[in-house]
Amino acid sequence: IGLQSKNYQETKRESWKLGEVEIELDQWPWIDPFIELEGPDEAALKSVAAQFNLDWSQMQSLGNNWNNKYR
Q1: CA-based angle 25:29:1, to the nearest 5?
Q2: Backbone torsions φ then ψ of 7, nearest 5 degrees
Q3: Averaged pLDDT, 13-38
Q4: Measured in whole angstroms, how far is the alpha carbon of residue 40 from the centre of its chain?
């Protein structure tokens, strides 16, 4: 159909599960890496966040998904 590639980028994702919480580490070439937590409820997410010393006040909610940029 005549389309031409404008750019190409690769992302990296690592996935883990701790109890009922899924943990995703996403790395993009043009933004800071971030961690996504997905679980059954806020209490489970807060528990995992605490185990990784993540600052809950810096988390962003997307329903039962919580994201945090890390440094």
Answers
A1: 110
A2: -160, 170
A3: 89
A4: 16
Which amino acid type is present at position 71? Answer: R
How far is Cα 55 from Cα 23, in angstroms, rounded to an integer? 15
Query: What does the mean pLDDT of the chain come to?
Result: 82
> Which residue shows structure tokens 């389309």?
3
Concatenating the DSSP letter of every residue in 7-61 gives -----EEEEEEETTEEEEEEE-SSS--EEEEE-SSHHHHHHHHHHTT--GGG-EE
Model confidence band, residue 70 (pLDDT cutoffs 50, 70, 90): very low
* pTM for this predicted structure: 0.71
What is the C-alpha to C-alpha distance for residues 53 and 33, in angstroms, rounded to an integer?
16
- Give the per-residue pLDDT at 28: 85
